[in-house]
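In the design runs reported in the main text, the only information available to the sequence generator was the tokenized backbone. The following block is the verbatim input for one such run; it is reproduced so that readers can re-run the procedure and compare outputs position by position.
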């Protein structure tokens, strides 16, 4: 009898999954659980966002399980960069956070599904399989928050651009307006230069200005308590 299998008999390739989480025990637990699931293969583990991007580009996984709060690079920016370079990869957020400051930015960055770490192992596996089929999965509390957001009436008056800045971005803007360099800002706020550059880029985009000089002019024009 021939050993050649027909097309219908050939095994479906396993869904290749990359784990990105800064807690080693979480990664170990996820890997152990997913290794027992048929059709799912964990191809790599990353302990921070920067490493997650590197491994994603190296392994080109079908699905990335993404934590949100991590050192070096958070899950929102990591998701954004992965989606820019690997648009066919599905990012599933797996986090303990449900607040709006995390939820909406990561979805806008390209996250495909959003689960909480209280999810059962079977629910995570099902979400991975659904993502591989192009189906999004939102934890019930997440879906409810998003529905409520769209039901809310739009505000009568549009906020000024600087009112969209986070507290940290406002701190950076004030220091930029004082003429401080990225290194000086990093030293003052006890953050890395890379993080400063990330915040400066966000500030410029949100204010709708092209460079630091225009941002400084904006800050002085709007009396943003620069002292």
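Verbatim output:
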């Amino acid at each position: 009898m021939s050993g050649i299998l027909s097309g219908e008999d050939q095994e479906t390739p396993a869904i290749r999954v990359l784990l990105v989480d800064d807690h080693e025990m979480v990664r170990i637990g996820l890997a152990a659980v997913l290794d027992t699931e048929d059709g799912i293969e964990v191809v790599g583990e990353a302990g921070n966002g920067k490493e997650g991007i590197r491994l994603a580009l190296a392994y080109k996984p079908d699905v990335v399980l993404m934590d949100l709060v991590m050192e070096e690079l958070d899950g929102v920016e990591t998701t954004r960069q992965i989606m820019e370079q690997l648009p066919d990869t599905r990012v599933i957020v797996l986090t303990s956070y449900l607040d709006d400051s995390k939820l909406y930015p990561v979805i806008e960055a390209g996250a495909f599904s959003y689960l909480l770490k209280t999810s059962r192992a079977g629910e995570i596996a099902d979400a991975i399989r659904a993502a591989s089929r192009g189906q999004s999965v939102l934890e019930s509390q997440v879906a409810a928050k998003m529905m409520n957001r769209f039901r809310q009436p739009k505000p009568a008056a549009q906020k000024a651009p600087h009112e969209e800045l986070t507290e940290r971005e406002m701190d950076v803007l004030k220091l930029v307006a004082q003429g401080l360099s990225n290194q000086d800002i990093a030293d003052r706020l006890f953050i890395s230069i890379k993080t400063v550059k990330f915040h400066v880029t966000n500030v410029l985009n949100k204010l709708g200005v092209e460079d630091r000089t225009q941002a400084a002019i904006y800050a002085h024009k709007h009396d943003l308590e620069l002292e």
